[in-house]
Amino acid sequence: MTKKQESGATPRQYDAAFKDEAVRMWLTSGQSAEVTARALGISVFHLYEWKKRVSQVSRAAGSAGLPEGKEALQLEVLRLRQENLRLTEQRDILKKAAGILSEPPLRGMPGYRP
User: Fold this and answer.
1) Which of 36, 41, 66, 113 is the most exposed, fewest CB within 10 Å of its CB?
2) Cα atoms found within 13 Å of the Cα of residue 60, Cβ hemisphere only
């Protein structure tokens, strides 16, 4: 008669809500994955795998999503306005530089030929 040997340990199953909350907790806490995993009593490799799955799902959805709440939306609008202002300034600087570089050289400058 053969007796099956069992490893004794069965893999733990985590539901999707726990996985999502663990990833959110890790990303918002500012702590390393190792510290967060130790606090939750899970392997750090689980966190990395779950984060990869969450990233793939959000990319498949095609949207990063809107922040929830009036305050979060106001902060997002403020951040986007500041970014827009910065990009506008960079564009204007590049326009001026292109204009300066496209001007013919001044008389007396090296390489000037009338």
Assistant:
1) 113
2) 6
Residue with the two structure tokens 């990833």: 23
71: left (phi over 0), alpha (psi -120 to 50) or beta: alpha
User: What CATH number does the domain located at 14-64 have?
Assistant: 1.10.10
Q: How far apart are CA 47 and CA 26, in angstroms?
A: 8
Digit-coded pLDDT (tens) for 35-77: 999 999 998 999 899 888 877 776 665 555 667 788 888 888 9
SS (H, E, C) 9-54: CCCCCCCHHHHHHHHHHHHHHCCCHHHHHHHHCCCHHHHHHHHHHH
Residue 28 is encoded by which pair of tokens?
Answer: 């918002």
Per the structure block, which two tokens stand in for 36? 């967060």
Classify the phi-psi angles of 111: left when phi > 0, otherwise alpha if psi is within -120 to 50, otherwise beta.
left
In the chain, domain spans: 14-64, 66-102
Residue at token pair 């907790």: 25
